[in-house]
Structure formats: structure tokens, C-alpha cells
User: Which sequence fits this backbone?
DNA sequence: CCTCGTATGATTGTATACAATTATACGAGG
DNA sequence: CCTCGTATAATTGTATACAATCATACGAGG
């Protein structure tokens, strides 16, 4: 985790705006707010015990993300996230995670490779034991290392965004024992390709990895909440 | 242009926040604000004749885009955009524009195809005449149609973002007569693949199109402003 | 009964006041 | 001379007051 994110985390934790932002975001992603529902600044402010100012700032961010739509002088309306949105993001992520793995192959450090190796090793252990919480954390970290290693601020930023977007869905997916072993194996493949300095191979494995995660999700009907 | 964007345009035109947001954004992208420069709410507010409130809201959006970094209780610092950022975005765009063309092939309407045909035809004319303004507009529109046709809110949103990002650079690139003809030809190739209902072919052509645009930009050293 | 205009209330847009936090300067103590 | 702590100034964070805008209700006029 780099400096940028540490600071963002601080913001989110300690500022009202950050808390409001995440609260609304979660409520939209979790389906608490329905499509086209109108969000009133004062109502949400009262619910969270803050004034309109932090709520407004949170609205502006959510608008930019496309989660709500603001009509001037009128109101904020939930855009929400559909099954198709999740599906599309997985397709887009597949391509970009591939690019990330490719670039990471060319820029990764010794230390990062070692952390990936440790990560893969530990994941195997926790998968055997069925420790879903730790698995989710390790999976996060595996991808996070690649994001850092790809040496592209833009790609890193983008993939983190998508990653967060599908985090809820992904966590459920990994809860399935079978998938967690497959996922580990795919991580191992990506790591091997990186160690062999074969960027194209790493790209293909990473592509496949995301698509497999998506297929598994569909097969298990684990994204019904997003209808 | 869909309903969503019409409304956003209204926002940007008539609200102080929208104007402030675009002003700062342009100033960062054009290099007026240097890397790591501190942006003070009150200073910018005074410059634009508005209070801190709209400035703050604009800051929040810029932070989410990664153009500035906000340190709590301290200040906002310009992250800026480097040559490498532009380069990376072109690589990412290449993949996503490919995906967009692929999906567009599967969902495009008769009317959209007709508009593309008209677009390509008109572009040839303006390229001959050296009408750079119209060419830029037509090029925008060509990609815009594909974004609409791809039938994915997420991908559409993302590509519009990137497109805006590199707009300044791209406009300069098209000013070169040679490139504008090549670009038109590539547009024609994409359109033909779509008409043949060959998604993979459309994807490859779109991939190539963006990479060519990038290569041309590098070759002409047209992105020096972003050093 | 319908249409249009106006009045009224609700909501967002903006400005500003005040609180909290941070950085800096400066002096006491060692 | 250096270190540490405190006071002060500057800046952001938040709340609130007021302005502008929009939606609705209602009544006059046809």
C-alpha cells in the first residue's frame, strides 16, 4: 500500500465527508437505495448526524463515479449498479489486469516477488483451513502488489477502483472452497510467468484469472443482489 | 449524445461548481499548475470570484480523478499528468476501445451505422480540405457513436473519461494532414468490420487505431507539453 | 371542464461564520 | 547551540444562513 492510499484512508476514516461518501456508496452497492431513488441532502445529513456540506461533497464524488446522477437545482438520483454492470466490469478488468500483469513482469522488484511467493504459500494454507477472511485479505494483497509493480499510476488507480467496485461480490465468490483453490492456482501461474520474465504469458494468465472468477460467480448465482 | 451527458453539460455550464471544476482541470492538464503545487481554496475562489464552497466540491471531484491529492486539514496538491500517464492511457484505451468496437458490432443499430458511414464520408472531405476543427469534431463523434453502440454504461463512461483526458493531445495530432487520412482509413476499417458482423476483426482494428494514434503522437513529439 | 399564471413550499446553490487542525515562529531551558 | 513546548497565524472542516430555482396547488379566466 503506497503513500497515496494511506492518506486517502486517513481522510475516509476521520473526515465526515469520507464517512458519508462510503456510507452512501455502500448503501447503493448493497442495494439499500433503489434505482432512481431520490437522495435528499438534508435527509441523509440528518440520518448521519452531519450538515449538508459533507453530504454535498460526497454527492459530487458519487456523481463522478456514475453511481448517482445530479440534476441541477433538482436532486440526486441513484443510478445504481446492475448485473450487466458487474459483468461488464469483469470483462474490462480482465483486459486491464492482463496489461497490469504484463507490465508488472517488466518492473517488479525482488522484494515484491518474494511477497507474492509468501502470499501464494499462505493462501494455500488458509484455503485448506477454510479461513475465508484471511483468504480475501491475501487475494486483495496479491492483486495490490501487482498494481504497485506495474509501474503505472493510471492503471493502478483504475484497477483499484474496479477492484473496490466488485469487492463485495468477489468476497462471496472466494467463500466457496473449490474456487479458492482454483484461484490460488491461477495466482501461482501468474507468479510463475512473471518469474520466467514472460510478459505475454503473465498477461494471458491474468486475463483468464479474472474471467474464471467471473464465470464462477455466474455459475454460483452469487450476484443476485445486483438484479 | 445521451440524456446523461446533456444534463451534465447543463450542470457544467450553469453551475459555479461545474465551471470551477473545468477551469482547474484544464489548468492542470494544460500545465498551468505545476506538479506538487498547492491549491488553496480561498485563492482559487477569489480568482474565479466565487466562495470556497464550489471550489471545495470541485476539489473532491478532482481528487477522485487522481488529478489532485487532498491531505486532510492540510491542502490540495496537484498530481498532474506526465508523459508516461498519457502513454499508459493510450495503452489502456487501446484495449478498451477494442472491447467497445467488439460489443458495438453486436449491438449497433441501422441508424448508428448510417451515421458512421456519413461520418467517415464527411471526414474524407474535410481531411482533403484541411479543416482541422471539423475533423476533430467528426473524430469525436465517430468514437462517441461507438461508445453509445457498445451497450455498456460502464465502458461508455470509462472511455469518455479517457477520451476527455487525451483530448488536447489528440486534437493536435489530427492537425497533421497525413495522420488525419490514416485515421479516416482506420475508421473505415472498423466500420467495415462492424458491417461484416465480425466482432474480433472490429476489436483488432480498434486496438490498432488507438496504438497508431499514439505512435503518431510520439513520432511528432506532440506531447511535449506534458513533460 | 380545461388552461394558464401566480403564489407557496421545498430543495438545491452559494456564501459566510465558526471550529478544528496544522505549520511556523519564537523563546525558555538545558 | 540545540531541543522542546507553547503561542499564533493560516488553512481546511463543518454548520448554517440566505438566494435561486423548481414543483405543486390553486384559482381566475376562458
Assistant:
Amino acid at each position: 500500500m503506497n503513500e497515496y492510499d494511506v492518506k486517502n484512508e486517513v481522510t475516509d476514516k476521520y473526515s465526515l465527508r469520507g464517512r458519508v461518501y462510503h456510507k452512501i456508496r455502500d448503501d447503493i452497492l448493497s442495494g439499500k437505495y433503489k434505482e432512481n431513488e431520490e437522495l435528499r441532502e438534508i435527509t441523509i445529513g440528518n440520518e448521519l448526524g452531519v450538515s449538508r456540506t459533507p453530504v454535498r461533497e460526497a454527492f459530487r464524488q458519487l456523481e463522478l463515479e456514475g453511481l448517482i446522477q445530479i440534476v441541477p437545482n433538482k436532486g440526486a438520483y441513484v443510478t445504481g449498479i446492475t448485473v450487466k454492470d458487474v459483468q461488464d466490469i469483469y470483462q474490462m478488468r480482465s483486459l486491464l489486469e492482463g496489461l497490469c500483469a504484463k507490465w508488472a513482469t517488466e518492473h517488479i522488484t525482488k522484494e515484491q516477488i518474494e511477497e507474492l511467493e509468501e502470499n501464494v504459500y499462505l493462501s494455500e494454507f488458509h484455503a485448506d483451513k477454510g479461513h475465508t477472511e484471511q483468504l480475501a485479505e491475501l487475494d486483495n494483497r496479491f492483486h495490490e502488489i501487482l498494481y504497485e509493480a506495474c509501474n503505472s499510476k493510471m492503471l493502478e488507480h483504475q484497477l483499484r477502483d474496479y477492484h473496490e467496485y466488485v469487492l463485495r461480490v468477489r468476497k462471496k465468490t472466494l467463500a466457496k472452497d473449490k474456487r479458492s483453490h482454483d484461484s490460488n492456482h491461477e495466482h501461482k501461474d501468474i507468479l510463475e510467468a512473471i518469474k520466467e520474465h514472460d510478459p505475454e504469458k503473465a498477461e494471458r494468465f491474468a486475463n483468464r484469472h479474472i474471467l474464471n472468477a467471473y464465470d464462477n460467480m455466474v455459475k454460483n448465482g452469487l450476484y443476485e443482489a445486483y438484479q
The longest helix of chain A spans residues 83-107. Chain A touches chain B through 36 residues (CB under 8 Å). The radius of gyration of chain A is 19 Å.
